[in-house]
Model the fold of this input.
Amino acid sequence: MQISKSQLHDWLVIHIEGQVDSKTSSKLNDYLAQELDNATNVALDLRQVPFMSSAGLRTLLLLYRRVETSGAALALVGLAAEIADTMKVTGFYDFFIVLPDLDSLQTSNKST
Amino acid sequence: MVNPFDFTFSDLISGYVTHYDPENRSIDLRTSDGRNYNAVLTGNSYAKQTQNLGEGWQDRTADLESLLTPGRMIFVYGTFFPEETTSFEVNFIVFANEADNDYRYLEPSWWTQQIDQIGSSYLKWQFQSPEQPIDYKNYRTLISLTGGKQEQDYLQETDTISRLVYGMASAYMLTGKDEFLEAAEKGTDYLRDKMRFVDTDTDMIYWYHGIKVSSSGQEQKLLVSEFGDDYNSIPAYEQIYALAGPVQTYRLNGDPQILNDADKTLDLFDAYFRDHEKGGYYSHIHAVTLSPHEESLGRNKAKKNWNSVGDHAPAYLINLWLATKDMRYAAMLEDTFDTICSHFPDYDESPFVQEKFFDDWTKDQQWGWQQNRSVVGHNLKIAWNLMRFQAVRPKQIYLDLANKIANLMPAVGYDKQRFGWYDVVERILKPGQRFHRYAWHDRKAWWQQEQGILAYLILNGHLPDNSDYRKYADESAAFYNAFFLDHNDGGVYFNVLANGIPYLLGTERFKGSHSMSAYHSTELCFLSTVYIDLLIKKRPLDLHFKPLANGFKDRILHVAPDMLPKGSVTITKCSIDGSNYNDYDAAGLFVSLPDSKERLKVKVTLTPID
Done:
């Protein structure tokens, strides 16, 4: 799994490539813990993530809690349909801003 | 050097009347440990009888002569005047029984009425029932002394819902009132819908810490604990207590979904919390990796404690076994009790068990608030749960440890002056000390009283010849019923001062909090009823069930209310939907339910065998 970051509009975009599973989720978790400042709107670019295990979903939940607590927003970009389905099963899909592409960040409501 | 006591102060003396002189209005009494006092009535002294929840004030000021007879238990609150001779002048007296009758806590239906009252209070506070329908959207973890709730920015913790559900299910089993079953089942459904995380990789289940709802109405699922001791981790005890309510509900309705959730949560315990090499269960795991060994767990990294090992049994595992008789649960129970017997006793160092451990079972005496301290109630809880399980899987080590704890605790964790059980104490006396120091205060928490009452009731039930056990059951239950019941607002107080006066500050003012939901107070009612009726007073007990049509496996409804001594109880009557029904195994304590497309209302009468 590769992780990089960029800035787009008011968003810190974390680009992830590869599957997020029990082997790689810790790396993502650690990266996010290091890179995120308080009150930063965060977008996870998941267009190149074909699979996310439960460990990955738990990472998203922790990230969500952290970003929400700081008053910022968290968006998931380019979520694969299968991952979206799993999130719906586990009951927390509705908590995230889910966007089809990075261009949508500009028009997204960041204050949700 | 402390000054001599040359100031007045008020306090409680609890004990037994040795002599009453009506002419001089003078009472001689002896404490639990045999010390003598004299108390003098004043013109303003008054007396009351212990009253149950739902009962009115019972004044006994005019009955002192008939009630102050030798041997009678009394609670005397008054003021010490340290003059030439110190005198103690009575403010008020609380009695624990009438004339020659049993203690009030032993009266038929005492605890059933209490659970009914507590259950109704929580239904009113949480859901405005019966005026409004029971809807767990309206549930709040935090509720005030009077039952008031926050309407915005609120928290719904999984465990506190589950604990309430346990209380509702227990209240149904004893009373048969449909509103309690409805609350138990709706709460179980809510937990499943909102708080359950099905791990799609492993098919295991774990439970969210809870849901936070903001003033804008937005819900936020909380995966990890928000509670200080366990912050940012998944603690074992939260997963354990998530099952308490649903499993007690399963005993009533046999809902296979509950059994499935429980089994898959057990899979989680087995896969991630269990130490397969050195035994026991870890207390915390990391939220992402589910490992107990992550550095980021900090002081909770690779630790084991009372809760992670010992809480399985009372919270859900004994109840799961009672409902199913499945050997998987019996094996896990045996393993947890063996683990306790192997590692918790530490009698070379302290009369209290060791409660926190490193990975290799060496003692952790540096952790947070615990340090080298003991929770009195944890010791007592070990005793009564060992005693329950030894009825099913007899082992001398279980009996020995239960007896050892029960014999040690009165000297070190009990208030011999006033009755009742202390909270957290230093495990070791320093040179010159006679009393184990209280970690913060000498207040008495409601749940610690539960442990004391149940320890001595259950040990007395299983070992009826031990009169000391009965004495401590009597004193503990009398103290609790005299001082913990909130006759103004309903439910029970969180803490009282050592002298029985309610302590109503901070979170200890609440009727609902991270610590308090209706669990311990209702568990006390449920198990007290079972042990008093079936083993101590030996009178029949009715229990209520309402199995689903697709409920219990092979349509076998197990009705044993607890792990009682083999052959001590039999079914003497069963009715289904109001009609007599005879297809039951009286000695085996199960009912073979008829084939039915509708759920059935089952009432069973259990009768003790002399």
Summary: Residues 110-127 of chain B form the longest helix (18 residues). Chain B has a mean pLDDT of 96. The interface with chain A takes residues 193-194, 196-202, 218-224, 287-290 of chain B (CB under 8 Å). The radius of gyration of chain B is 24 Å.
